[in-house]
Specification:
The protein has about 270 residues and is α+β, with helices and mostly antiparallel strands. The protein contains four helices and 17 strands. The strands form six sheets. Strands 3, 4, 6 and 7 form a four-stranded antiparallel sheet that branches. Strands 5-14-13 form a three-stranded antiparallel sheet, with no helix packed on it. A three-stranded antiparallel sheet has the order 8-12-15, covered by helices on one side. The longest helix has 22 residues. The protein binds 2-amino-4-trifluoromethylsulfanyl-butyric acid (MF3) and cobalt (II) ion (CO) (2 copies). The site of one cobalt (II) ion has 5 residues, from strand 6 and strand 7.
């Protein structure tokens, strides 16, 4: 059975209880979320054909340190980069490297910054040069899917309502929802309960309660939902090599809905035409 605990009274570890956070946590998440959004805005101005993804990672690292933040992925389970850069058929956890971006690529940049202990976790899709219609449509569908999931977050609804909203929409657009990765509780921890599945049925799962903090980060494929992990132990790709896209926001449940902590200060989150 799921149980909830007042976060201030709980140990800072994943003990299976869902933490209900207070105003100080929301203030901390607001600050961490705003910083990661600013970082992703900064990356927006860099994206062009020929740019190695390592150059993006370098900018994320420098931005974090300059702003008294720590990239949460650095040293996380042996991961050595400040971001994940997932190009085309890479679903998530692509490792930055010297391979340059190419005209027509779509790339997800995922950054988690720790500010005063609080984790802001967000990702967006970026278009490199001129992107084909099919890729452009996938990016649009994925953003809309995330936002429909977020709109389902309110006390009275459940994680199943969120998953259903995403799955119904994505599949109505002839796309598929990746099952092997999910959103997660976060706060002073990077990955905490509950798991936020991006598929499901109305009324199932965990009831949303004010004070819950978690991510919504659907991965949507143009082809089939199956993924495999490459031999580097991280890079997840679509088995059928179809294109995959992802967006991610960190949110907190309020009395009548939710607050998005990672909104772009420049309004750059929604996809723009390439
Ligand atoms: N930021 C990712 C997430 O959304 C996690 C990346 S973990 C890493 O949860 F080690 F792959 F970087
Ligand atoms: Co996340
Ligand atoms: Co992330």
């Amino acid at each position: 059975m799921v149980s909830y605990v007042e976060a201030d009274l709980a140990p800072v570890k994943n003990d299976g209880k869902i933490k209900l956070h207070g105003p100080e946590a929301f203030a901390g998440m607001r600050k961490a979320g705003a910083l990661v959004a600013e970082c992703l805005d900064l990356v927006d101005g860099m994206i062009e054909p020929g740019l190695p993804t390592q150059a993006i990672d370098d900018v994320v690292y420098d931005f974090a340190l300059k702003n008294d933040a720590i990239p949460a992925t650095l040293g996380y389970k042996g991961y050595t980069k400040s971001s994940c850069t997932s190009i085309n058929h890479v679903v998530c956890h692509g490792i930055p490297g010297e391979k340059p971006l190419r005209d027509g690529d779509i790339v997800n940049i995922d950054v988690t910054l720790i500010v005063d202990g609080w984790h802001g976790d967000s990702s967006r899709m970026y278009k490199v040069g001129n992107v084909k219609r099919a890729a452009e449509r996938l990016v649009d569908v994925t953003y809309e899917a995330m936002m429909r999931g977020i709109e389902a977050i309110r006390p009275g609804n459940t994680t199943g309502d969120l998953g259903y909203a995403i799955q119904e929409y994505a599949e109505s657009e002839r796309c598929s929802v990746v099952r092997d990765f999910c959103g997660h509780g976060l706060g002073l921890l990077f990955h905490d309960v509950p798991n936020i599945l991006h598929y499901g049925s109305p009324g199932e799962g965990v009831a949303f309660k004010p004070g819950m903090i978690f991510t919504v980060e659907p991965m949507i494929n143009l082809g089939r939902p199956q993924v495999k992990i490459l031999s580097d132990g991280w890079t997840a790709v679509t088995r059928d090599r179809s294109l995959s896209a992802q967006f991610e926001h960190s949110v907190g449940v309020t009395e009548d809905g939710c607050e998005i902590f990672t909104l772009s200060p420049k309004g750059l989150h929604p996809p723009r035409r390439s």
